[in-house]
Design brief:
- By secondary structure, the chain is mostly helical.
- The chain has one domain.
- The protein contains 5 helices and no strands.
- α2 packs antiparallel against α5, α3 runs parallel beside α5 and α4 runs antiparallel to α5.
- The protein is elongated.
Length: 127
């Protein structure tokens, strides 16, 4: 029986894969589209947790991309500000009512969209 501490290669490789921006945007759109149907309380909880997961994946990807830019670069500063706001939103708890939970999830969705924008912009202009 092996008790090694080294992580499997597949796990290490997965950490360096780009985030699935299409899926992230589709999840955010579920809450932000003009014609979006209000989710049930159970679906809202699932969407909120999914959005939090998307943010946890996107934040490091944006950080890595931003770190490749010069310190005085405007896109770097914008990306880092976005990361700061996303982290702040991750620390917040949804309200106890359905409308408060919906507003919280929509703020998370806007952060997901912003992080996805930074992922695209930083990877396309600085590869």
């Amino acid at each position: 029986m092996s008790h090694g501490t080294a992580r499997p290669a597949a796990t290490a490789e997965a950490e360096h894969l780009p985030p699935d921006l299409a899926t992230m945007r589709a999840t955010a759109r579920r809450l932000l589209a003009d014609d979006a149907e209000p989710p049930s309380p159970e679906e809202l909880e699932t969407l909120t947790l999914t959005l939090r997961g998307h943010m946890m994946v996107a934040i490091p990807a944006v950080e890595i991309a931003a770190s490749r830019l010069p310190e005085d670069d405007v896109p770097r500063a914008c990306a880092l500000a976005c990361i700061g706001e996303a982290r702040m939103r991750l620390r917040l708890e949804p309200g106890r009512t359905l409308p408060a939970g919906m507003a919280h999830a929509q703020r998370l969705a806007r952060s997901v969209n912003a992080l996805a924008d930074h992922c695209e912009n930083l990877s396309s202009t600085h590869d």
